[in-house]
Amino acid sequence: MAFQRGAALAAGMALAAFFWPSQVARSGSDYSEVTVRNFPEVQAVSGTVAVSNLPPATAFVRREGVVVPPFSRSELYDAVQGEPVSTEGFSRMVLSLQGEIRDALPRPGVVAAVLVPDEEPILLALRDARRVEFPVEVAAPLESAGAVYFASEPVEAKVAFPRYRVYFYNTTGKGAGVNLYVHLTR
Fold first, then answer.
1. Which of 58, 76, 132, 137 sits most deeply, having the most CB atoms within 10 A of its CB?
2. Is the confidence at residue 38, as pLDDT, over 80?
3. pTM of the predicted model, to two decimals?
4. Taking 70 as the threshold, does the pLDDT of residue 24 lie above it?
5. What is the mean pLDDT of residues 84-93?
6. pLDDT tens digit string along 54-76?
7. Are 136 and 114 in contact (CB under 8 A)?
8. Smallest Cα–Cα separation from 171: which of 149, 146, 140, 148?
């Protein structure tokens, strides 16, 4: 009987030690201690456990000073290409576009950037059939003739591919200096 009581007490203490937090987070500190339980039959843990080289939670990509002559969206494959944007590891992106018309007196139109997944079948469809598949587009309208500066509303989108090619088009009839900003988040 005494043996059963002692065994029950030891089992209760073992369970309490297992579920009891090893240390309560200290106020004012920016870290917490973590305890690792070793279950060698299932998954053995040995040595020091450390987390290093964490990827950044956000990234900000700039494509500035891109000169975009007049091109329609239907000519996208032949239009100006910017440097590709790597989105691997991120789940969302916010695109913003701004710039200025290089020549005086443009007509009303749109200056835009279109991100197209950098995948061979999608790029073949763009090149051969002029089909734009899975685009992420941000556009800045010029609504009145003679406007010089333009800016888009931010466009938020889900990231579906690890890398996108960037194409620019401009329907104002005049050259434009364009800046594209992409904010990536996890």
1. 76
2. no
3. 0.70
4. no
5. 95
6. 777 899 999 999 999 998 898 88
7. yes
8. 140
Residue 115 CB partners (closer than 8 Å, separation 6+): 85, 95, 135, 136, 137, 164, 165, 166, 167
In the DSSP assignment, the letter for residue 12 is: H
CB 159 within 8 A of CB 93: yes
Query: How far apart (Å, rounded) are the C-alpha atoms in residues 171 and 72?
Result: 6
Number of Cβ within 10 Å of residue 156's Cβ equals: 11
Look at residue 9 and give its three-state secondary structure: helix
Half-sphere exposure of 21 (CA within 13 A, CB side): 7
142, 138, 139, 140: which is closest to 95 by C-alpha?
138
